[in-house]
Amino acid sequence: MAENLYSPVEVPESPAKKAKGNLTGIPRIVHDSSADLYNCIQEWNGNHITGVSVINEICNLKITHLNSSNASVAFPAGLEELCNSLEDVCSKLNTVLNKIKEVKNHYEGLMKLNEMKNINTPVFTTWRVQEFVELSSKILSMYDKELQMKLYIKENIAHTKYEENLLLYQTIWVQQPYIENLDLQVEAMLKETTLRQ
Questions:
Q1: What Cα–Cα distance (Å) separates residue 72 from each residue in 57, 66, 69, 161, 189?
Q2: Full set of structural domains in the chain with CATH
Q3: Helix axes 129-156, 163-175, angle to 10 degrees
Q4: For every residue of 131-167, which 3-state class applies, written as one string?
């Protein structure tokens, strides 16, 4: 009798798995766009870490300069090269942000196409195109705000005259306050699109 208390959970077959062979159509575009979005996040993280190293060097150089007897000189030697490196990092982060915008636009185009065709079914197992649009929009918004903060830091860090401000800029760069932890949602997207098994 105890055997009949529970019934097995049945999950509908994925529309993507019904076809044999390579994905085509909307599932293929969603799959590729999801891979692109994940790669953008990884690329951002790599550039962010490079930026952390540059920010640390700038802060160490500026703090040493501010505490030295040579503080009457406006900028210490080597600062310009470090600022140029930080400019390169910010430029790469901007490129990543533009790629995220492209991915979001792909998802939105697919959503509009589905709306025109009156389709509201999951692309794979559970996520409709709308969920991909929502996640990519959230990621784009967070990364855009974070890039604006990083650009502000880049423009001001060389000119600050107070150690406290340098340490604040350093902490803000490292902590990325505008980027929430979306690991769970990104992992769910990767599982949904079969990019992660």
A1: 20, 9, 8, 11, 54
A2: 24-193 (1.20.1050)
A3: 160
A4: HHHHHHHHHHHHHHHHHHHHHHHHHHHHHCCCHHHHH
Asked whether residue 74 carries a pLDDT value surpassing 90, the answer given is no
pTM as predicted: 0.86
Cα 88-37-90 angle, rounded to 5 deg:
15
| Amino acid at position 32, single letter | D
Query: Of the candidates 90, 54, 62, which has an alpha carbon nearest to the alpha carbon of residue 164?
Result: 62
Helix, strand, coil distribution of the chain in percent, nearest 5: 70, 0, 30
Is the confidence at residue 56, as pLDDT, over 90?
yes
- Residue in 154, 162, 168 with CA at minimum distance from that of residue 91: 154
